[in-house]
Amino acid sequence: MQDWPKSKNRKRPEKKKIKGKFNLRKILVISFFSVVLLCLTLGFIGAGFIYFYFSKDLPDVRQLKVYQPSTITQIYSDSDDKIAEFYIEKRIIVELENIPLSLKQATLAVEDSNFYYHFGIDPKAIFRAFLTNIKAGRVVEGGSTITQQLTKTMFLSRERTLPRKIKEAILAVRLELVFTKDEILEMYLNQIYYGHGTYGVEAAARNYFGKSVKDLTIAECAMIASLPKAPNNYSPYKNPKRALKRRNHVIRRMANISFINQEEAKLALQEDFHLGKVEKMLNKAPYFVEHVRRILEENFGSSKLYRAGLKVYTTLNINMQESAQRAIKKNLLIADKRYGYRGPLGLLT
């Protein structure tokens, strides 16, 4: 029998795969993503629980739609000269458009440079502050945004606890859903405490520099913006050297994030550090002013008198009032010499 040549294309029989052999890589990948999915699920569940637990009894941020902070009631003479003020918080409301760009930029530079990009809380800033504080071994930097600072001032206590911080974060996110960034910034700049009894940038500008906020220089804006972190520690009245150092830090920060150029920063750093003529309240007619105060309190109530920012124009003529006071003083002295009257204490001698 003839042997036929074997075909070169003849396929070798395939080896059967061994059942039960584990693909280690596949198992590891599946396990990894399963763990990640589980962590995310637990994270969302935990976050949801925290949100609903701490959301109980939180105030409604929509009440700020009617933003009416405590402001100064001012009393004027017949020539429109201010003769007295009544207030609990020394504040003068100013619209955002009347606040200089340099002051808005200085505030953002030192308090919240990502203000226009976050949603009320800034995870990046929180993580950075966490690392900085761990490295320093103490709390040297905070991660609160401008929105968080506003919610703390408007709605919460000043206690430094984790529950309060969680509530602050929840309210900040809610605030961002209701108000625009500009509305939040305007409320912040009018609400925050700037030291020495002043609230808001307009009252601060008049207190420290004796001028309206719209007339501030870049260096003066930096000084005002430097105060909210620690108004007492950075007070230019109490700690001028520390205040100057803090002001210069704000100016350099503005330059580093390109709010101002290097030439503007150089000029601002070279600007003499001095306080302007502070507006003083001269009560030239104390008895008259007290009479006006009583009438206002009887007609409007104490709360409105000290919080509503009333402007009261009177018929008082300062020159005539001073003349009358001099005449009374003169005649009292004459009567004293004539009759030897010394008042209640004089009777004891």
Fold blueprint:
Elements: H1 24-54, E1 73-76, E2 82-86, E3 90-91, H2 101-111, H3 123-136, H4 146-155, H5 162-178, H6 181-191, E4 193-195, E5 198-199, H7 201-209, H8 218-225, H9 240-256, H10 262-270, H11 286-300, H12 302-307, E6 311-313, H13 318-339, H14 343-346
Parallel strand pairs: 1-6, 3-5
Antiparallel strand pairs: 1-2, 4-5
List the strand order in the largest sheet: 2-1-6
- Uncertain parts: 345-349
Largest sheet: 3 strands, mixed
Helix content: 40-55%
Number of strands: 6
CATH fold type of the domain at 100-270 = Penicillin binding protein transpeptidase fold
Rg (CA only): 34 Å
At the first level of CATH, the class of the domain at 100-270 is Mainly Alpha
Strand content: 5-15%
The end-to-end span amounts to 162 Å
CATH architecture of the domain at 100-270: Orthogonal Bundle
Number of helices: 14
Any idea what the CATH superfamily of the domain at 100-270 is called? Biosynthetic peptidoglycan transglycosylase-like
**What global shape is seen?**
elongated
The SSE order reads HEEEHHHHHEEHHHHHHEHH
Helix/strand class: mainly alpha
Mean pLDDT: 83
What's this, in brief?
By secondary structure, this protein is mainly α. Helices cover 53% and strands 5% of the residues.
Written account of the structure:
- By secondary structure, the chain is mainly α.
- The chain has a domain at 100-270: Orthogonal Bundle (Penicillin binding protein transpeptidase fold), CATH 1.10.3810.
- The chain contains 14 helices and six strands.
- The protein has a three-stranded mixed beta sheet with strand order 2-1-6. The chain has a three-stranded mixed beta sheet with strand order 3-5-4, with helices on one face.
- Strand 1 (73-76) and strand 2 form a beta hairpin.
- Helix 2 crosses helix 8, helix 2 (101-111) packs across helix 9 (240-256) and helix 4 crosses helix 5.
- The protein starts with 23 loop residues before the first helix and ends with a helix.
- The relative contact order is 0.12.
- The model is unreliable at 345-349 (pLDDT under 50).
